[in-house]
């Protein structure tokens, strides 16, 4: 038999648009001779819909869309769609089998993930029944995403007589996630001896980005089909009781995958939220240069407006390099000096600051002048301001609240500084858009004379290793020191991370590309007396 797999990009809440997309796919699949069409998790409403599924009007609209789709889809086609099903017992993360003009069966997700970025137990009830149906002489069982990450539901499908397992997924990307999925799928295949079709979502949704990369496991536990990452498509597979044939796409390497994740996240955040384009502040440094390249690749150079806002401390080469990168990328560009604005601020504050020495207050006024200008441009032109701070800066609070943190989407929020350099080199390997001098120069905020980042922070190779241990792996301070780090440096970094929580809580969302980001993943109290660095001498 021929099976169609819809690796699609759906929009949360666009129930009519998602249903129309599914109907088009059903008609195309039927015309191509497919007997079955498998779609991702929550394909009717998009994923994650979060507390929208608590609204009765929302779930009623989803139910109506499923019923309408059942009536309109080709009657001979078995179409499987995901949606939030409301019953008298509660709301379920469900998959409906549509065939013959009706909803033939419904499967309800068993294992509701409640960790990292997931909190499904907050809004969904747990199902416990298997769902098996026959199509073209083959018996198929259904699971939904988290079901295959634990034993049980796959075995239930096997015991109910399934020959194949169909898995609807909305599995968000992070580094190493593709390897994790394969390992989990192989564990279920060993458990059940069932071949498996794994259909995954693609697209950006707030902080999450979904990479697609759907695949098929044959009865021997080998990947028989590999769909591409980061690309929508309707892919056709030929199945029999044991085997499968279909496309075999090569998945990108690590830096290419991270770059694609960031590009897709920006494209969908801008597009799905209806912004006309983006504005960003260009400093002549590597973070803003990389952000600019990502933005141009995401939405097109004609929709990107870069603004250089020099101060008295801005080096001439920063302006030169900014002009060069915008010329290479072909984006719109403006220069707005902030000197007069900062002078006005300091003049108005002179009475209050009388007798006090200059400090970071005056530095932050420069960053806040830039943030105000960018937000004014955003308001006037209906654009999204992209912030350019990286994870190393967000982790330590090396950023100005209401200054360089002002904006709507933080592109590099989950990208450590050391990876920023790797991504810049990767992007230049595709085409040389970032001037080499930007990559080679010591990073600086340029808010005072001769300033470099290392005046305030450890070398980034050291800092990023400590942050990965403390933020992403929750290692105690003593274990981080045991890895070879200086105790005083570890103590300083941990203190900076903890004190900066109030800043991060007010920062814009940004795409998650590590197993633990600042935002949906890592949730720490702002007010806390616990000091984990206190265990160090």
From TrEMBL:
<comment type="pathway">
    <text>Cofactor biosynthesis; NAD(+) biosynthesis; NAD(+) from deamido-NAD(+) (L-Gln route): step 1/1.</text>
</comment>
<feature type="active site" description="Nucleophile; for glutaminase activity">
    <location>
        <position position="145"/>
    </location>
</feature>
<dbReference type="GO" id="GO:0003952">
    <property type="term" value="F:NAD+ synthase (glutamine-hydrolyzing) activity"/>
</dbReference>
<dbReference type="GO" id="GO:0008795">
    <property type="term" value="F:NAD+ synthase activity"/>
</dbReference>
<dbReference type="Pfam" id="PF02540">
    <property type="entry name" value="NAD_synthase"/>
</dbReference>
<protein>
    <recommendedName>
        <fullName>Glutamine-dependent NAD(+) synthetase</fullName>
        <ecNumber>6.3.5.1</ecNumber>
    </recommendedName>
</protein>
<dbReference type="InterPro" id="IPR003694">
    <property type="entry name" value="NAD_synthase"/>
</dbReference>
<feature type="binding site">
    <location>
        <position position="388"/>
    </location>
    <ligand>
        <name>ATP</name>
    </ligand>
</feature>
<keyword id="KW-0547">Nucleotide-binding</keyword>
<dbReference type="GO" id="GO:0005737">
    <property type="term" value="C:cytoplasm"/>
</dbReference>
<feature type="region of interest" description="Disordered">
    <location>
        <begin position="504"/>
        <end position="537"/>
    </location>
</feature>
<comment type="similarity">
    <text>Belongs to the NAD synthetase family.</text>
</comment>
<dbReference type="InterPro" id="IPR022310">
    <property type="entry name" value="NAD/GMP_synthase"/>
</dbReference>
<feature type="binding site">
    <location>
        <position position="364"/>
    </location>
    <ligand>
        <name>deamido-NAD(+)</name>
    </ligand>
</feature>
<feature type="binding site">
    <location>
        <position position="177"/>
    </location>
    <ligand>
        <name>L-glutamine</name>
    </ligand>
</feature>
<dbReference type="GO" id="GO:0004359">
    <property type="term" value="F:glutaminase activity"/>
</dbReference>
<keyword id="KW-0067">ATP-binding</keyword>
<dbReference type="InterPro" id="IPR014445">
    <property type="entry name" value="Gln-dep_NAD_synthase"/>
</dbReference>
<feature type="active site" description="Proton acceptor; for glutaminase activity">
    <location>
        <position position="41"/>
    </location>
</feature>
<feature type="binding site">
    <location>
        <position position="393"/>
    </location>
    <ligand>
        <name>deamido-NAD(+)</name>
    </ligand>
</feature>
<keyword id="KW-0520">NAD</keyword>
<dbReference type="Pfam" id="PF00795">
    <property type="entry name" value="CN_hydrolase"/>
</dbReference>
<dbReference type="InterPro" id="IPR014729">
    <property type="entry name" value="Rossmann-like_a/b/a_fold"/>
</dbReference>
<dbReference type="GO" id="GO:0005524">
    <property type="term" value="F:ATP binding"/>
</dbReference>
<feature type="compositionally biased region" description="Basic and acidic residues">
    <location>
        <begin position="518"/>
        <end position="537"/>
    </location>
</feature>
<feature type="active site" description="For glutaminase activity">
    <location>
        <position position="109"/>
    </location>
</feature>
<dbReference type="InterPro" id="IPR003010">
    <property type="entry name" value="C-N_Hydrolase"/>
</dbReference>
<dbReference type="InterPro" id="IPR036526">
    <property type="entry name" value="C-N_Hydrolase_sf"/>
</dbReference>
<feature type="binding site">
    <location>
        <position position="503"/>
    </location>
    <ligand>
        <name>deamido-NAD(+)</name>
    </ligand>
</feature>
<dbReference type="GO" id="GO:0009435">
    <property type="term" value="P:NAD+ biosynthetic process"/>
</dbReference>
<comment type="function">
    <text>Catalyzes the ATP-dependent amidation of deamido-NAD to form NAD. Uses L-glutamine as a nitrogen source.</text>
</comment>
<keyword id="KW-0436">Ligase</keyword>
<feature type="domain" description="CN hydrolase">
    <location>
        <begin position="1"/>
        <end position="241"/>
    </location>
</feature>
<feature type="binding site">
    <location>
        <begin position="281"/>
        <end position="288"/>
    </location>
    <ligand>
        <name>ATP</name>
    </ligand>
</feature>
<comment type="similarity">
    <text>In the C-terminal section; belongs to the NAD synthetase family.</text>
</comment>
<feature type="binding site">
    <location>
        <position position="171"/>
    </location>
    <ligand>
        <name>L-glutamine</name>
    </ligand>
</feature>
């Amino acid at each position: 038999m021929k099976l169609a797999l819809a690796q699609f990009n759906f929009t949360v809440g666009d129930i009519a648009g998602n249903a129309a997309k599914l109907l088009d796919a059903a008609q195309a699949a039927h015309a191509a001779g497919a007997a079955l069409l498998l779609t991702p998790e929550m394909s009717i409403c998009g994923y994650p819909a979060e507390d929208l599924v608590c609204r009765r009007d929302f779930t009623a609209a989803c139910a109506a869309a499923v019923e309408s789709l059942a009536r309109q889809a080709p009657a001979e086609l078995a179409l499987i769609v995901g949606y939030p099903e409301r019953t008298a017992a509660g709301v379920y993360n469900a998959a409906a089998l549509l065939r013959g003009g009706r909803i033939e069966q419904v499967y309800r997700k068993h294992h509701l993930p409640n960790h990292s970025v997931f909190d499904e137990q907050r809004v969904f009830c747990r199902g416990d029944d298997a769902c098996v149906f026959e199509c073209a002489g083959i018996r198929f069982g259904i699971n939904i995403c988290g079901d295959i990450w634990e034993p049980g539901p796959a075995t239930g499908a096997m015991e109910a007589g399934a020959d194949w397992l169909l898995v609807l997924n909305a599995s968000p990307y992070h580094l190493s996630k593709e390897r994790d999925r394969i390992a989990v799928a192989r564990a279920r295949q060993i458990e059940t001896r069932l071949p498996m079709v794994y259909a995954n979502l693609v697209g950006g949704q707030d902080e999450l980005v979904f990479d697609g990369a759907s695949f098929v496991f044959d009865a021997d536990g080998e990947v028989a089909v590999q769909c591409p990452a980061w690309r929508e498509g309707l892919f056709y597979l030929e199945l029999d009781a044991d085997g499968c044939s279909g496309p075999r796409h090569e998945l990108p390497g690590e830096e290419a995958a991270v770059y694609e994740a960031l590009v897709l996240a920006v494209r969908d955040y801008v597009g799905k939220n209806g912004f006309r384009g983006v504005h960003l502040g260009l400093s002549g440094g590597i973070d803003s240069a990389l952000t600019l390249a990502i933005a141009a690749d995401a939405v097109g150079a004609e929709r990107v407006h870069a603004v250089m806002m020099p101060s008295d401390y801005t080096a001439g080469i920063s302006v030169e390099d900014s002009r060069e990168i915008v010329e290479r990328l072909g984006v719109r560009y403006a220069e707005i000096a902030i000197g007069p604005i900062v002078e006005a601020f300091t003049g108005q504050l002179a009475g209050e600051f009388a007798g006090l020495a200059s400090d970071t207050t005056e530095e932050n006024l420069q960053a806040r002048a830039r943030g105000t200008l960018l937000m004014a441009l955003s308001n006037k032109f209906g654009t999204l301001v992209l912030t350019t701070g990286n994870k190393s800066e967000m982790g330590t609070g090396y950023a100005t609240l209401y200054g360089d943190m002002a904006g709507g989407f933080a592109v590099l929020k989950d990208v450590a500084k050391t990876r920023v350099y790797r991504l810049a080199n990767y992007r230049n390997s595709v085409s040389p858009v970032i001037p080499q001098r930007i990559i080679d120069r010591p990073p600086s905020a340029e808010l005072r004379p001769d300033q470099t980042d290392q005046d305030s922070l450890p070398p980034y190779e050291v800092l990023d290793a400590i942050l990965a241990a403390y933020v992403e792996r929750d290692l105690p301070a003593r274990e981080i020191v045991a890895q070879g780090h200086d105790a005083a440096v570890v103590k300083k970094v941990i203190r900076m991370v903890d004190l900066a929580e109030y800043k991060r809580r007010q920062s814009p969302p940004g795409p998650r590309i590590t197993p633990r980001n600042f935002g949906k993943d890592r949730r720490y109290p702002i007010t806390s007396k616990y000091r984990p660095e206190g265990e160090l001498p």
